[in-house]
Structures are given as structure tokens and as C-alpha cells.
Amino acid sequence: MHIQQTKVESRATGGPQYYLHNVPAHVKEFLRKRGACPVVLQTPYGLARSEFTAVGRDHKLDDKGRAIVGKVGHDRIQGKESIGEAIRQWYGLRRGEDFEWIELEASIHADGHFILLPTSLRLRGHSRPRLLARSLFPLSFHRDFQSRLWKQQIDLCRKQSGEQIEWAAGQISRVVLEHRGNPKNVHEADLLRTAGALSLLGLNLGCYLNRGYDCLGSAFQFKPLPKYVCPVEIKKRSSGFKYQVLKYSELPRAVVLCVEHDFPGVPDHVDVIELATLAEYLSR
Q1: pTM
Q2: Residue 166 and residue 78 share a domain
């Protein structure tokens, strides 16, 4: 399945529109039944809410964004901005060149989320397509898996300031060693002592809350990509996240920050950062 803009610099009613081509049967059926639904975009960081809407060929959006019957004749993605430009920003692509097409995969989550995953694209005037990097757990860093995105970010930070990385490794290692001593009555929020070190690596933890996810407003900023806001749950062990998997399912996206990773079968779109493994990698 791929998308093409209706016209270069198109500004049709309802915002720029990208027509869907070669739509799989399950996607057609979903759009025909729903008429329109919000789009969740897969980014290099993981799932992200968007301002875009997938609209079936037999529907259109009214002035309030509601789906009504309308014989447009094309399945499409539309919004106030261009989804092509949103993909350009999320994937750190150079500005100034128009897209010929963008190849996508679509999946429908059990909770009804319509997820679009960009896989490749071709720019106007170029003969060869460009593949877009993809990873199932792009923000995970633990003993079993270290994502390429994290490794690239750490390598860049090390080139910019090896002294800062050395300091960050020392700070995280100290917290890990103290927790491995298993002192009684130490609250999981004690892991927030690593916040300064993590900020040097591109993870800024949000306020620690007493309801819902611990650090709901946390943000990742890995160069050259834009900022990505994602809830972070603080746990001594990742297995303690099982409650949140069942309780907080509005959008299946979160990151668990823990000392030890012991949660087998982590759900899709949930990443785990194991401080013990991160400290070891930074100290190399």
C-alpha cells in the first residue's frame, strides 16, 4: 500500500490529502465500516498520536471533523497539515524535495487504533526508492536487546563529549550498585537520581506523579530526530509493569525504566530500559 499526494502543493478542503493506493482488503473493510478514524503513526521512536484521519472512499469529513456520507471515490489520509511532511520530520529527512510516493503498512490494533508504518519512499526526480529504518522495540536497551537507535545516540553523545558520557556512566552505575545491595524500604522513585545522567543521553524524565504512569510527560530527543513524548514507568524490576499493561491501555505505548529486566514476553510497543545494562555499555 502506498500514498500519493493529490497534487503537488495541494490544499484541498479539509487540508492536504494523500490518496491510498493498492489498499489491502482488511484495511478497505475497516474504512468502509468506520467511515473515518484517527491515524496512529509509527515513528522511529514508536507509536505516536497524530492529527491525521484515514477516510474511506464513501465518506468525507464535515466542518467538525465528523465522518458523513460523501462520494469522494478514494480512500485517503487527510489533516490540516501534510502527512508526507510529518513523515519527513519524524524520520529526519531533508526538506525541499517532493515525494513521488510513500510505501506504508497498515495494522489495526485490538483497541481500534489504525496504525500506519512508513517503510520506503521515492522522491521526485530520483530513480531509486529509499528504505526507512524500522525496529520492533526502538527504545529498548536491556541485556537481551539494545536498539540501534539507542546505540547511534550514545555514539553521537560520546563523540560530542566523552567526559559527559563517563560522568553519566558513573552516576547510573552508582544507583545500580546501591539497588543491587537490596536495601530495605528504598522506594522505586529513588531511580530518579539517574535523571541528570539520562538527560545527557536524550531522555528527559517528566514529573513523578502519584496517579497513572509515573513520569507521564517524559520526552526522548535523539538527533537528528524531533522530540518524542512518551510515558515512562519507574520500576525496580520490569516484571512489576504487568499491572500497567492491563490498566493503562488507551494507547499501547510506554517505556519501563528499571534496574533489572525480568519481564518475559514484553508486549509490542512497550520498551524496557535496564539501567544495569545501560551503565555497562556506557562504561566501555
Answers
A1: 0.90
A2: no
